[in-house]
Amino acid sequence: AQKVTQAQTEISVVEKEDVTLDCVYETRDTTYYLFWYKQPPSGELVFLIRRNSFDEQNEISGRYSWNFQKSTSSFNFTITASQVVDSAVYFCALATGGGNKLTFGTGTQLKVEL
Amino acid sequence: DAMVIQNPRYQVTQFGKPVTLSCSQTLNHNVMYWYQQKSSQAPKLLFHYYDKDFNNEADTPDNFQSRRPNTSFCFLDIRSPGLGDAAMYLCATSRDGGRTQYFGPGTRLTVL
Questions:
Q1: For chain B, give me the number of helices (H) and strands (E)?
Q2: Splitting chain A (114 residues) into consecutive groups of 10 residues, what average pLDDT does each group show?
């Protein structure tokens, strides 16, 4: 069975602070995919990144960066110099092999204040 | 731009009155999904179509049905909505399994 844990229910930061959202996953499959989605108050789930289990390279995209570590089964997401527009719920998710089902974590509500 | 479209964005129905939510996509993806998301919870997969093959989740109530008349369109039918069915309904698509799912803006359903 697959499981994704996002232990942080809610995080509040002041604008321009860096913030890291944690994600820990469990799976017995050797082939799997990890995702981060952003859900702003409007409700749409916006795809941010996909990582497959064979690629442990960290990735940076503008102010966003992701740290994938198989040794600790973690796929953490860092926002540098946070902005108010980053306020949203962020979901980490896992898909295994050729499966069609995303296993979501419970989400982390990020609030960025002025 | 290629996208996933959901109509309507907001739907109000009465207890027990059938309702249909629609989803269309211009991505030409072969897999389409329906999720239910209640307040402060993660999305929950109801079912998905892999091409024309319908795949129901074991815990999806019989009250929920789906139709996919062609590649581009997929419908969610709620035969007799209860108060507990009030939620955001999200449609998503992907090219094959295990691939990135792209979500529509969702339909927020209110049951009176």
A1: 0, 11
A2: 94 97 95 94 93 88 94 96 97 84 94 96
pLDDT in tens, B6-63: 999 999 999 999 999 999 999 999 999 999 999 999 999 999 999 999 999 999 999 9
Point out the residue among B31, B103, B106 whose CB comes nearest to the CB of A100: B31
CA end-to-end span of chain A: 41
B28 to chain A, any CB pair closer than 8 A? The answer is: no
- Choose among B107, B89, B81, B64: nearest CA to B13: B81
A87-107 burial, b at 16+ Cβ within 10 Å, e below that, comes to bbbbbbbbbbeebbbbbbbbb
Helix%, strand%, coil% for chain B, nearest 5: 5, 50, 45
Is the Cβ of B90 closer than 8 Å to some Cβ of chain A? yes
C-alpha to C-alpha distance for B56 and B64, rounded to whole angstroms: 10
Going from the C-alpha of A78 to that of each of A19, A22, A82, B19, B43, the distances in angstroms are 6, 9, 9, 41, 23
